[in-house]
Write a structure and sequence with these properties.
7-stranded mixed sheet, Aminopeptidase
């Protein structure tokens, strides 16, 4: 698939990159309004931030923007956070609650299903295949799902988001030792704030693949974008700021690569 980028390693760690893409299919782009076309809710530069941190890691990335379809949402359309503001499988608002489509141009059920088949299903087929491949080598696999978001979004959460937001769906998606390794590294990172299973407990991807009893472990990292980039347009990567963060991310990934079941 031309919109999928897969880099294969033989280590047990797979990085998921579901929201870094900025491509909009023509039939989607023509229906978006100015807010939608701005694509503000991208996980900007996350692939660059993690590039080259550790060897022999597998990455799976979609280039399709989340406004076309969010591959980290339940394909059946169920909310990840019932009772809280969030965005849908095919979002119709941005993270500020503002409409992203021209009036009357929102996708109907048939269009949503078409996008699911075209973009959501292939991404997860690829991700699932890579997890199965590395599990066949090691007997287990670890999915580290890479995300970022603006540190202040009143529509989604109050106040300022911590820098490291670790999600394991209350400890259900990975071995306790994996959760502990990641959170310990985050807490040890001087000058950064950390929360475990706070506002972000792990998206559909983490919850879907995280089956520790089957040797499949998944953990989500939602970084506050203030830790490595300019949070407003033009959303530039700030090399000096990112350079402070990358060594901590490297330590996290190194720990995950070295981990094995007891």
């Amino acid at each position: 698939m031309s919109f999928l980028e897969i880099s294969r390693g033989d280590g047990p760690l797979v990085l998921g990159l579901p929201h870094t893409g900025t491509q909009l299919p023509e039939n989607v782009a023509k229906d978006l309004n100015q807010t939608g076309r701005a694509r503000a809710d991208t996980d900007w530069h996350i692939h660059r931030l993690h590039d080259g941190l550790v060897p022999d890691v597998t990455t799976v990335r979609t280039l399709i923007h989340r406004y076309a379809i969010d591959v980290n949402r339940d394909p059946a359309g169920a909310s990840l956070y019932p009772g809280q503001n969030t965005t849908a499988l095919c979002p119709v608002t941005d993270f500020d609650g503002l409409p992203i489509y021209q009036d009357g141009a929102e996708p109907n059920a048939a269009e949503i299903e078409s996008r699911r088949q075209l973009y959501h299903a292939p991404y997860h087929a690829a991700l699932g295949a890579e997890l199965a491949r590395v599990k066949a080598i090691h007997g287990f696999a670890i999915l580290y799902d890479c995300h970022s978001i603006r540190s202040q979004i009143p529509f989604l959460f109050e106040g300022v988001l911590p820098d490291f937001n670790v999600g394991t769906d209350g400890g259900r998606t990975c071995a306790p030792a994996i959760e502990a390794l990641v959170t310990q590294r985050c807490h040890a990172a001087e000058g950064y704030r950390t929360v475990l299973n706070g506002r972000f407990k792990g998206g559909w991807t983490t919850r879907h693949y995280g089956r520790p009893t089957d040797g499949l472990h998944a953990i989500q990292m939602e970084l506050a974008q203030s830790t490595y980039m300019l949070e407003q347009a033009p959303w530039t990567y700030e090399g000096d700021v990112a350079a402070r963060l990358r060594p901590h991310l490297k330590l996290i990934l190194q720990d995950l690569i070295r981990w094995s079941p007891a």
